[in-house]
Amino acid sequence: MPAYVIVNVDVLDEEAGLAYAPVAQESIDSHGGRYLVAGPTPEPVEGTWDSSRVVVIEFPDMDRIREWYDSPEYRRARAIREGKVRVAMLFVEGTVLDGFSLPV
Fold first, then answer.
1. DSSP secondary structure string, the chain?
2. pTM above 0.90, yes or no
């Protein structure tokens, strides 16, 4: 079942952000991930969104996300961004094709 990484991003140092992005993207690509959404955060329909950028990445499954996140390639990307790009990240599993049901 597909799994997703939902990321809130605030770039504090533009140069570091520009160095981080291609290294992160290469690590994502090499682990079977693909970007679904990446760009400035649009105006929220409800509530607030406390970051300037939003990214949604799809992976084949949750195991692949964990492999990617723990990989030497992505650890290198995290080292580049440390203290210069603020990231909040969620790992979520997809749902079956016919949607979801509420607990009984």
1. --EEEEEEEEESSHHHHHHHHHHHHHHHHHTT-EEEEEEEPPPPSSS----SEEEEEEESSHHHHHHHHHSHHHHHHHHHHTTTEEEEEEEEE---TT------
2. no
**C-alpha span between 41 and 56 (Å, rounded):** 11
Residue 58 sits at φ, ψ, to 5 deg, of -105, 135
The pLDDT averaged over each successive group of 10 residues in the chain (104 residues) is 95 93 95 96 91 95 97 96 95 79 60
- Tokens coding 88: 């909040």
